[in-house]
Design a protein that fits this description.
Blueprint (H helix, E strand, L loop, with lengths): L1 E6 L8 H12 L3 E6 L5 H11 L4 E6 L1 H11 L12 E6 L5 H5 L6 H13 L3 E9 L2 E3 L2 E4 L1 H14 L6 H15 L6 E5 L5 E4 L1 E5 L5 E3 L2 E3 L11 E6 L4 H12 L10 E7 L1 E14 L2 E21 L1
Parallel strand pairs: 1-2, 1-3, 3-4
Antiparallel strand pairs: 5-6, 5-16, 7-10, 7-15, 8-9, 8-15, 10-13, 11-12, 13-14, 15-16
Length: 308
């Protein structure tokens, strides 16, 4: 088996020593090539090349952003001529590692590596569905408005040298909420063939559960959503403090099933169109995707083979 290990050396919890242990363990079972990313988009380029060259497996050691790059590289239009698509595996190396968590990959990189080797020996693979926003694939979530503003704020502060922590995200979320709460609702959503729903403040789209993590605590927007179902949407119709706090409490509950008169929520949907009165920020798997006025989200079943 030929495998490519894509490592983001800048990811929150990766290290040279950990990379070497991981590479040594994998090389004992597969023919391994190691790629360390050097620029934004390098992981996508490496994954596209590996796919075209007939790799059997791509292993990502990094955070959710690196995973997203690799998946988009594997599924680029120009690689459709590849004889087959490789399978994907993830060794957590970022802060949240939401995609790995949804796949029930152990958080500890060494434990995750041993589990991967067991899965390879037992030939355990499965196909999972992905989401797509315009021409960009996402593995676990996307969003328009508030959560995209939070992502942009965290990226801005990270660019100033701030270390990314759960507290940084919490502070950014508080500031963005206080700013967005004063604005009028700008979103309209349409799910599959249902009538449009207007006057919404933010839309959070999920392809798996949990939607994200707050530290080690899972955050559930659409707990019914899995890699085997369609996508889910969670859209806020009110930004009043009591309403938002109630939904936050629901999302953090172990038996989460968010509901309320001001909440628009659907699970297992095929298509979603979000229309904004003016361009709003969009995020995809925790990375900024720009500002758009009309955004189409679709669910693509059986889009990716994963080991485990």
């Amino acid at each position: 088996m030929r495998a490519v290990l894509v490592v983001n050396p800048e990811a929150t919890s990766t290290s040279a020593a950990g990379r070497d242990v991981l590479a040594h363990a994998l090389a004992s079972e597969v023919k391994l090539e190691v790629v360390q990313t050097r620029y934004r988009g390098h992981a996508a380029d490496a994954a596209a090349r590996a796919t075209l060259e007939g790799a059997d497996l791509i292993v990502v050691h990094g955070g959710d952003g690196t995973v997203n790059e690799v998946v988009n590289g594997m599924l680029r239009t120009e690689v459709t001529t590849a004889p087959r698509r490789p399978c994907l595996s993830v060794i957590p190396g970022g802060l949240a590692n939401v995609f790995a968590g949804a796949l029930e990959v152990p958080r500890d990189p060494l434990e995750a590596t041993h589990e991967l080797l067991r899965a390879l020996n037992e030939q355990r693979t499965r196909w999972i569905g992905l989401g797509k926003v315009d021409d960009r694939w996402f593995t676990f979530n996307a969003g328009v408005g508030l959560d995209a503003d939070v992502v942009a704020e965290v990226e801005r502060r990270r660019g100033k040298g701030r270390r990314v922590t759960p507290w940084l995200y919490t502070g950014a979320a508080t500031r963005c909420y206080l700013a967005d709460a004063r604005r009028k609702p700008l979103l309209t959503v349409q799910v599959d063939d249902e009538p449009q729903v207007t006057a919404l403040h933010a839309a959070m789209i999920s392809n798996a559960d949990p939607w994200t993590y707050l530290g080690r605590r899972p955050v559930h927007t659409n707990p019914e959503t899995t890699f085997e179902t369609g996508i889910g949407v969670f859209a806020l119709g009110s930004m009043l403090p009591h309403s938002v706090l109630r939904h936050v409490a629901q999302m953090l509950s172990d038996r989460a099933k968010p509901q309320g008169k001001s909440l628009f929520r659907r699970a297992n949907i095929s298509r979603l169109r979000v229309t904004c009165e003016r361009p709003l920020r969009v995020q995809v798997d925790g990375d900024s995707f720009g500002e758009l006025s009309v955004i189409d989200f679709v669910s693509v079943p059986n889009a990716l083979c994963v080991v485990g």
